[in-house]
Write a structure and sequence with these properties.
Blueprint lengths: L5 H15 L29 H21 L10 E10 H4 L1 E12 L2 E12 L5 E8 L46 H6 L3 E6 L33 H16 L5 E11 L1 H12 L5 E5 L17 H7 L22 H6 L6 E6 L7 H17 L21 E6 L7 H14 L2
Parallel strand pairs: 4-5, 4-6, 6-7, 7-8, 8-9
Antiparallel strand pairs: 1-2, 2-3, 3-5
Helix pairs in contact: 5-6
The protein binds beta-D-galactopyranuronic acid.
Length: about 425
């Protein structure tokens, strides 16, 4: 997050260039390492009960992930007000109730608002819902003309018609394939989505987004142990859940945090930090998400911190090319979600996200689920392609690339029916 002196930046650039050309995609080159034991405290004490897990081990792990990986939230900030911007009880050809709800936050003489797009199944009193961010605006997930276009900063993207960091009509419906809205509604669930750039624009700049509302006097960027963007986006999901608790159409005890890729890292962290999320889905979340960092397969800590210096807290930099020094790994992040249902999904062609590392992580988290008498990923053998394992902890690897598909959603719905609903 800090600016490096010029000469150092050149050195760093060269190093990264050489380093990234060495991305490892070979299983035989994965280093040998011990899997940090979720049930052994940092001081060497063995945990053998739910009580000790919840009193001793879970808090110390959570603290570690907060201080050294995602960053702490400096202070609690509640919703100042919310406004139903728009509502239609006969949306999507009469299939759904649509609501667009704006949440507003105020602090330090600053204001931040973001808008939740909700599709709820008709004739259902309190619906369980999937909540997940989208990458390019709520209007990209559907052809529905009534969905409002965000005025927040967006990454330019030619194929989406996004220029000058501004979202327009040109991108309406561009991401419908990632959101199986009809399947979700038909199964009796609602869908809530938010444009992540409204909570914190995805760029290495901490003058904007939610961070700026919570600085102390004179502060203009997070401290080394304070929140990066992933923690900020997770915070936004938790505040959406605060709103759901007030919305009579939603069953706030059945909100499933969903996310793809960087937003899958986000849904995992949201589930770890807020126990109210009834279930968590990580779709192709990879490095800093479900994948084990110590495997150094595909994207690594050094590479992710270089490309996205704002995602994690500054303290995370000390583990770049120094994974051995990490006393934890990402399966322990997954374990923080226990005993709540958790779904980890990979894609065959998404080697950058290390599917095997994602799988192993779900396996090694399972021992904490066992404390609660729940089943997870009991085997160390990866399943065949398109052959999901469904338990309280679920896993699948599907054919195809880094993406969200109908196949993914069909499985999330099956798992939610069995373990969340
Ligand atoms: C990639 C990044 C991944 C993943 C992905 C995404 O460039 O290296 O960690 O987060 O972006 O979010 O689409």
């Amino acid at each position: 997050m800090k600016l490096l002196p010029y000469s150092l930046s050149i050195f760093f650039f060269l190093f990264m260039f050489i380093g990234s050309s060495q991305t490892n995609y070979e299983e035989s080159k994965v280093p040998a390492f011990a899997i940090p034991d979720p049930l052994l405290t940092f001081s060497g004490y063995t945990i053998n009960s739910v009580k000790k897990w919840e009193k001793v081990r879970r808090p110390e792990l959570l603290r570690f992930f907060e201080n050294d990986i995602y960053g702490k939230i400096p202070k609690n900030l509640k919703i100042d007000s919310y406004t139903i911007l728009e509502q239609d009880d006969h949306a999507l050809n009469g299939k759904a109730k649509r609501k667009q709800v704006e949440l507003t936050f105020k602090n330090n003489n600053k204001t931040l608002s973001y808008t939740i797009l909700l599709y709820l199944p008709k004739n259902k009193v309190k619906a369980p819902i999937f909540l997940g961010y989208n990458f390019y605006g709520n209007h990209t997930i559907t052809e529905d003309k009534a969905v409002l276009i965000s005025s927040a900063w967006a990454n330019n993207n030619k194929s989406f018609g996004i220029e000058n960091n501004t979202l327009t009509e040109a991108s309406r419906g561009k991401r419908t394939h990632r959101w199986a809205v009809e399947k979700i509604l038909d199964a009796g669930y609602g869908l809530a989505t938010i444009y992540y750039g409204e909570v914190d624009p995805d760029k290495n700049d901490f003058s904007d987004g939610i961070h700026s509302l919570l600085y102390q006097q004179g502060q203009n960027q997070p401290k080394p142990a304070e929140w990066g963007s992933i923690a900020a986006w997770s915070w936004g999901m938790a505040r959406a859940l605060d709103y759901f608790e007030k919305d009579a159409d939603i069953d706030a005890s059945k909100v499933i945090a969903f996310g793809h890729s960087r937003l899958g890292k986000t849904s995992l962290w949201a589930g770890a930090t807020d126990k109210r999320f009834a279930g968590v889905i990580s779709n192709n979340s990879g490095c800093g998400g479900a994948a084990l960092s110590k495997r150094k397969f595909g994207e690594t800590i050094a590479v992710i911190n270089d490309r996205f210096p704002h995602w994690f807290c500054d303290n995370f930099n000390q583990y770049g090319d120094n994974e051995e020094a990490l006393p934890v790994d990402q399966h322990q992040l997954l374990a923080l979600i226990a005993p709540r249902p958790l779904y980890i999904a990979s894609a065959e062609e998404d080697q950058w996200a290390d599917p095997r590392g994602e799988f192993l992580s779900s396996h090694y988290a399972t021992q904490v689920y066992h404390l609660y008498g729940k089943k997870g990923i009991e085997t160390k053998e990866m399943p065949m392609l398109n052959d999901p394992i469904h338990n309280t902890v679920s896993y699948h690897i599907r054919t195809g690339k880094h993406d969200v598909t109908d196949y993914d959603w069909e499985n999330y719905i099956k798992w939610a029916n069995a373990f969340v609903k």
